[in-house]
## 1
Amino acid sequence: MLLEIDAQSQTPIYQQICHQLIIGIAKNKLKPGEMLPSVRQMADEIGVNMMTVSKAYTLLKSDGYILTDRRNGTKVAEKKSLDPLFQQRFLNDLELLLAEASIHQLSENKIQEEVKQIYKKFEQ
C-alpha cells in the first residue's frame, strides 16, 4: 500500500495518512480484515518518521478504523454502524464547511451536486 504524501502541504503528514486510509476503506480499496504494513514498513515505504505513522495508526485505532494486535499486526476493522458521537462530529464539521461555502457564495445546488459525485465514489 503506497500512500501519496505531500511534504509541502499544510495538512500534517499523520493526518494525510489518516485521510488516505479512511478514503481507501470507504472506496473498498482496503477491505475489512486486510493487513496493513507495520509502522516501520509504512514509514519506510512513504519516507517518513515512524512516530508519524504511529500517531496516524493510533488515531485510526481510537476511531475504530483499524485494529492492532501485537501478534497479528494491524488490519482494517469491519465497517461500523452509525455512532451518535460520530454523527455529532460530522454535523459540526459539516456546519463549518457549509458556513465557509456560504461565505464563498457556493450555491446549495452546486454543493448537492458535488456531494452526490463524491458519495458515488464510495458506493462502487
Note: The two ends are 20 Å apart (CA to CA).
## 2
Amino acid sequence: MEVAPQARPPVCKIMDYGKYKYEQAKKAKEAKKKQNVMNVKEVQMGVKIEDHDFNVKAKMAKRFLKNKHKVKVRIRFRGREVMHKQLGYDLMNRLIDEVKDLGVVESKPKMEGRNMIMVLTPISDK
C-alpha cells in the first residue's frame, strides 16, 4: 500500500506486492550488472630471480592490471636471504617501474615474516 501523506484527505493506493518484488529484483540485477568486481591476483618470486623469469612475472602482472585486477606481489626469502631485505626492495621497485603505465602502488612493500608483500591497483580511467 502506498500512502500520500501530503494529500488532504490522505490518499492510499493498493498495489500488487508480487509486481513490486519483481521490479525491485530487476533493479537490483541491473545495478549488479554495472558493478565492477575487482579480484586480487598474486605474483610470487624469489630474491635470486633471473632476468627472463622476472620479465615473465612482470608480463603476468601487466596482464592482470589490464584486466582490472589488483595484483599482490610476494617475494619469498629463503634461509639467510632474509638478511638482505634491500634486494627485495630493489626487486619491488624494478617491478613498479615495469608496470607504472598500467598500475599504481596501493600498499608499499613491507615484510611479513619471511615474505615481502606489496599490492598494485590498476589506474582508473575516469
Note: The radius of gyration is 25 Å.
## 3
Amino acid sequence: MAVVADALLVIIFAAIGRQSHDETNGVVGALSTAWPFLVGLAVGWALVFAASRRNRTAPHPLRAWPAGVVLWVATVLCGMLLRAATGEGTAFAFIIVATLFNLLTLVGWRLLAQLAAARRR
C-alpha cells in the first residue's frame, strides 16, 4: 500500500503542477510529467527493499527516517536528472517546488503515521 500511496502522491504533484500552469491533457499529461519522478521513486523503493533484505534490523519502509528520506531524495534526484537528460525543464524554482512538495508528502505522511502509532501505544 505504501508504494501505491507514494506513486499517487508523485502523480498528484505532477497534476497540480500542470494545472497551475494551465497545461492540458489531463491524466496523460500528468503521467508524462510524473514519469521521471516515478522512476526515481522506484529507484528509492529498490534501495529501501535492498537495505531491508540485507539487514534484518533495518528500519521499516514506513518509517520517515531513513526510508522516507531515501525515497524523497531518490525521487527528486533521479526525477531531475531524467528531466534534464530528456530536455525537460529543470528551472531552479521547479527544483525547489519539487523538492519541498515531495519532502512534505513522501516523508510527511510517514511522520504522521509514526505519531499516530506512538499515540496509540
Note: The longest helix spans residues 26-54.
## 4
Amino acid sequence: MSEAEILDRLRQILHDSFGIEPARVVPETHLFEELDLDSIDAVDLAIKLQELTGRRIKPEEFRNVRTVADVIVAVESLLKS
C-alpha cells in the first residue's frame, strides 16, 4: 500500500468515524490540535488502523503519533512487519 493509498484510507476512516472533512486531512495536519481528536478518539483510530493493517498496534508505537504523516509512517511500519 502506497503513502497515497494510506492517506486516502485514513481520510475515509476519519470522515466515517469522526465526521472530519477529507480535505482537512493532509500530512502536516495535527490530529489533536487541528482535528480536535482526544485520547479516546486516538484509541478508536488505533483500532481502525489495526483493522486496516490486520496487525496489532503497540501502545508505545502510537503514543508518539501527532500528525497525519506520523499515522502514515506507523501504518507503513505495521504493513512491513
Note: The helical segments are 3-18, 39-53, 59-62, 68-80.
